[in-house]
Structure formats: C-alpha cells, structure tokens
Amino acid sequence: MTDKKTEILLTAEELFAEKGFDGTSVRDIAQHAGVNLAMISYYFGSKEKLLEALLEYRSDYTFSTLEELNKDQSLNPWDKIDRLVDFYVEKFINNNKVYNIISVQSSKLSSPEIKELITKMKLRNLDQIRKIIQDGQKKKFFRKVDIEFTMGSVMGTISQLTLSKNFYCSLMNIDKTDEEAYRKKVILRLKTHLKQLLRAHLDIRNEA
Amino acid sequence: MTDKKTEILLTAEELFAEKGFDGTSVRDIAQHAGVNLAMISYYFGSKEKLLEALLEYRSDYTFSTLEELNKDQSLNPWDKIDRLVDFYVEKFINNNKVYNIISVQSSKLSSPEIKELITKMKLRNLDQIRKIIQDGQKKKFFRKVDIEFTMGSVMGTISQLTLSKNFYCSLMNIDKTDEEAYRKKVILRLKTHLKQLLRAHLDIRNEA
DNA sequence: AAAAGTTAATTAAACGTTTGTTTAAATCAA
DNA sequence: TTGATTTAAACAAACGTTTAATTAACTTTT
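Predict the joint structure of the above. Result:
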C-alpha cells in the first residue's frame, strides 16, 4: 500500500478513536496526515469507505493471532486464557484503537454494509475464542459458562476502561494528560483483574 | 418542568443513545419532539447545554436507588449484589438510555464541563457500590477484589450488550428489528451471566 | 367583566460555518 | 507523451444558532 494511503488510515484510526466517526472531519484527517483534502476521496472514495478500509486493514491480524493461540498445543487452557487477556488488553490500550471503534461506535454508524462487516469480523473471532473455552471444558479445567457473554465481559471491561479514561484517572490519581502513566498503571491492573475474574468464573471447582 | 421541555429531553435521550451526540442534529430532535427548532436554544441555550440538562435530569434517581440499597439492613451482601445486577441491567436495557451516553460517549465529547459532570456522577455512584462490597468483605462473604474494576466489568458487560446489538442478534438468532424479543432474551441471559460471574468472583471461598 | 398592557411561548426565516464531495487544472514520474 | 498524483477552489447540503415577528397566556387597569 502507498505510504500516503497508510498514513491516512493510521491518522483516521487515531482520530476516529479519539473523537468518534461523526466527530472527525475529513479535513481533520487530511491535515493531521499531511495530505490534501481531496486525496481521501481519491484513494478511498468516501469517508465511510475509508472506515471500511480501516476495519479490513486491522481485522486480519486479530484473527490470525487467535487462530494460532487456539492451535498451540504447548499451552494448557489456563495459559491460553491468560494469553487471551494479555492480547486484548494490550491491543485495546496500546495500539489498534480501531477496537474501540468496532466495539463501541458500530451501533452509531449509519451504513448497513459496515455494520455487517463488523458483525462478521466479530463472529469470526468469537469462533476462535469459543474453541479455546470449549477445549478447556472438555479437558475438565473449566466449568459450564455462558461463553458469548463471558467474552462480552472481557471486551466490555476493557473498553469501559479505555472509554472512561477521565473517570479512572480521577479514581487512581493519575494526571489526565500523562498518557504514559495511565497506560502503565491501567494495563497492569486490568490484566490482574481480568485474570482473577476469569479464574474464578471458569474454574470447574466452582461448578454450582 | 414544562411538558415541552421534558418532551425535548426525552427525545434527545432517545436519539443521542441511538445515533450518538454528534450524529444527532438539533433539527432531528426538534422534529421528533414535535417542537420548533428554535425552542431548543430557547429552553436550553445550546445543544451541549441540552445534554448537560439531560444528565442532571437522570443522575439523581440512580444515586438514591443505590443509597437505599446500601442502607437496607434486611438484605445480605449476596442479595444486594443480585439487586445491583438487576437494577443496572434493567436500567441499561429498558429505559434510561442516558447510561449509554454516560458510559460510552463521554470521552468523545468536547466540553470539559460535561466531562467533569459525568466523572462526578460516576464517582458518587461508585462510592455507594464500594460500600456494598466492602460490607460484604467485612462480613466475610466476599473475598478481596479490585472493587473499581469489578464494577467496570459489570458496566462494561452491559454496555457491550447494548452497543453490539447487531452482533448479539446474529449470535442469538433474533430478528434485528424485533426490539421486544431482543430485550426479553438479553435481559434474562445477561442477569444470569452477571450473577454467576460475580458469585464466583466475589466468593470468599475462592480466595487465592 | 372588558380592555389594555406585559411577559412568555412559538414560529418561519435567515445567519455564518462546517460538512463531505467534486472539479478541473497543475505537477509528477515513467 | 502518458497516466498517476496532487492541488486549490468550488459545490450543495447540513449544521448549530440567532433574529425579528407573531401568537398565547396572564396581570393589571379601567
């Protein structure tokens, strides 16, 4: 892909995640990416097509990571859960802000095509996660749980944290402008919490 | 409050929750509320002030509900957790769509005043929840957990469900347009999942 | 009680910006 | 010379907000 095209994509990702799809203008994107306004239409056709391209650009990596994790025979189910948490927390908080767009802003988008695209991506990824948990159940590590909603809890917890940055900064006495301090503190605490949560939730010894 | 003023507030709540703050125009609101466009500026001053008024209009009820739940001596800690789940699930899914705005869209808003207002509301509510959990810990029902992030998981799970309606409809084979079927199915399943999740997570017998 | 006066509510129209997108000319590379 | 980039300018449409005129609801005065 062209350098400029990629530059536009990454800038758009940044701005969409920060200010929302509607809250970001194509002029904003063009200016921050250092390209002419018309280049966006030239490359992508429209603002919505730009978002669509962004989603596709990011979707492949997640799926292949989950697929590999699923296939890995050297890890036991608990290890896989830990890896899963690490992966999603880091992706959400550090980079790939597109997750924010996918999990949060999709319902606000008008285009049915994009909604469909996101739904398909999610279903594809959930399939991999479902296999991981079902494998743990078969091996008698995990108890019977609502797999889909359990993943909803994981994703929900993380996006909650990324979305309510203001709130959690007040809570943890972190300077709102110190992005780095926030990340370090939140990532650690979030991983710890989620692993503790899932350990209790999934453990077969807690079977009702 | 005037009938029309309330009508505008409720319409705005509906539309903000559905299409986002930026995605909703004042003309939209005026039309759906059946009032003249200028009435919004006349009553509230601006679109942002309208949102501010909406938040204040909704914030009191939640707090007093939590406060009462906290004080209630007839319920044991587990009962209170169940009530908490019921309360939040129903509020999120059924009415009070403003929760969606608060928990999800606050980071996208430009106005620092509104961000501050939301943070204060959240802190105030969390205080009540913290007391409930700490009480359960003191009475040796609950183990030591990350209280703030545990609440993040509860809120996150619920908002995940309300936001990714498209996705979960595909998942549960529900007609996307059948709002009532979605609510019924989701509310029940969500309550069950969250209670199961919290029961394992909080139980002192699962202390590491 | 009727009329006059006063404030509040409501309206249609217009304001100046900003929006996403397109155009047609200019520049670049091969 | 040809085809792909890049540009500044312009487009119509939608945006939040304001204006000035009109109607409705009350108060006060006669």
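Chain A touches chain B through 52 residues (CB under 8 Å).
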